[in-house]
Amino acid sequence: MLIFYVFLIFCVLFFIYMYLENFNLQVTDYKISSRRIPNAFDDVSFVVLADLHNNSFGRNNERLLNKINKANPKFIVIAGDLIVGKQQGDYSVPLALLEKLTKQYPVYYGFGNHEQRVAEGGEHYDENFNFYILKLKEMGVHLVNNETYTIYRKDSGINITSVEIGKEYFKKFKKIKMETEYLQKLVGIPDNKCYNILIAHNPIYFRTYIDWGADLVLSGHLHGGIARLPWIGGVISPQYELFPKYDAGEFHENGQTMLVSRGLGTHTIKLRAFNRPELMVVTLKRP
Q1: Which of 38, 95, 176, 215 has the fewest CB atoms within 10 Å, measured from its CB?
Q2: Given its phi and psi angles, is residue 212 left (phi above 0), alpha (psi -120 to 50 degrees) or beta?
């Protein structure tokens, strides 16, 4: 009987810990070095937000805003899923956050699968999403969806592109092959004379993204694998793949880089284990 009570107490404490970890925000710093980065962008920092899913760190996201302001970024990139994609969804949390951010920083917003779900033509189309988009445009948010924006600094620029891949590439239990030509049809061919940042919410197609020509890929979607184990990493992906390869952190291939955020919130499985919400601060360095 004693063993049972000890086990019960352990389980209760563990679930309390996992719940509290949803709000235990961590800032991680990444330095990306490349000779393709223009001199004017050397030592320029920006912040990446991903998978907020209506989560709030303190009243009106005060703790999140304070950490962003402390990082003092030149601009902000959103790598998808600020919302929870369902009909009659709540957009108040991201709207309140973006209203404050856009007063201080340029914001470049790439959609994730949750925004795609409730957009016109999505499987959970929500008329309220149209109001959300209208408010974003009024705030001056750059909606980078299958488009490319050039960010200028002095006499140089870098390109930032966001790709909205089809819902079939988010299917559970099955990974569909993605061809480079598919990306080219969606967003065109990148200018290889420029440093190209690609917002691509689902990281599992890293090889295709770099074959397309991305110097730096910014992703999220996997929530760090929900739970993380020492020396192993994330346990499961939203596609129910065990121990996904691109779970979180920094990945390199052929001199190109992908950063995968652990995300800032949860939705279906509202728990994290050894997997704190993450605010990414990225600094570009020219060697």
Answers
A1: 176
A2: alpha
Q: What is the pTM of this model?
A: 0.94
Look up residue 75 and give its DSSP letter. E
169 secondary structure, DSSP code = G
In the chain, where the domains are located? 2-285
| CATH of region 2-285 | 3.60.21.10
Residues β-bridged to residue 177: none
Beta-carbon contacts of residue 250 (< 8 Å; ≥ 6 apart): 30, 257, 258, 259, 260
Tell me the two tokens of residue 11: 């389980």
Three-state DSSP at 188 gives coil
Asked if 160 and 144 count as a contact pair (C-beta separation under 8 A), the reply is yes
The whole-angstrom separation of Cα 68 and Cα 174 is 36
Side-chain half-sphere of 269: how many Cα atoms within 13 Å? 16
Q: Are 188 and 148 contacting, i.e. CB atoms less than 8 angstroms apart?
A: yes
Radius of gyration of the chain (CA): 19
Q: Which two tokens stand for residue 145?
A: 């969806």
Q: Are 26 and 67 in contact (CB under 8 A)?
A: no
The residue written with tokens 């760190």 in the block is: 57
User: For residue 206, what are the CA distances in angstroms to 158, 179, 200, 210, 251?
Assistant: 20, 11, 9, 6, 9
